[in-house]
Amino acid sequence: MEKKEEDFSRFGDRDLEIERQKTARELWQVRDPKDPRHGELETRYNEYAREQWKREGNDPADYKYKHDARHEFRFEHNEKTGEKRATMAEKPDGSGPYTLRKRDEVINWREDTAVGHSKAVAAQQRVAGGTGDDAGHLIGAEFGADPADERNLARQELVQNEYGPYHQQERDIRDQVEGGRQCGMDVRARPAGKGSYRSLETFDVGADGKRLEKEAKNPEEQHQVLYGNFPNHSVRANQDGPAGKSAALEARQETHEHAAGVRAAVAAQKRDSGPPPREGPGSAPSPDSPDKNRGGR
Q: With a threshold of 0.90, does the pTM exceed it?
């Protein structure tokens, strides 16, 4: 029996958004793609989103179907050591790992849906609330990863998370994916404390769907980068327990000001010493971010 097309003319813009968000809440609960309801709900979600795209003056033919990609990632948490890992899941047919999708091909649960946003905020608060750190995602929601899975969240120094080198490397990877690179991510986080760090590794996937092993020994082509997670003004302000709201905001501001001072000093040194040597991935300075606690990406 042929499916009857939805009559969207009966929906005003507000009602259409309500229906899209309602469908998102239902889809959030059915994350297993083998469940028949998953495909039905994902399709319905896209029907509402496509109609909104059309009403914004866009050509419906240019709309990109948005996948619920939460199952395309695998998360691990070692309860004994506290270490966490986020990487690509293997496809059910055994053909190889999933690869990162372009932004317009996934549901960004944190940005596109009310249910994902509220769940993510609550999870970030549980992971890093009152510490002075951000709760940074190991793999960002913009790739379709679950923003509320606590195995995908770890305390992270706020500058690294919001506009520092780690943030920049994530942007570089995103741009490469947008440009057609077929790749995956493998991120590991060692818990806050002495020796805390994150490692971010990318790997390419060949035409046969299999992961390509990196053979190059040249450090400039290295695919894995380590980032230390060091205490800052914001963390130190919370050492003896959560700081009050005013004190916490002041400490975050001091952290941002210190980072800005360091960047200015480095820029001045580069001007005085001539062209800089070629740097590794994610090392380019980024513009300042707004001074607010975004709680991690």
A: no
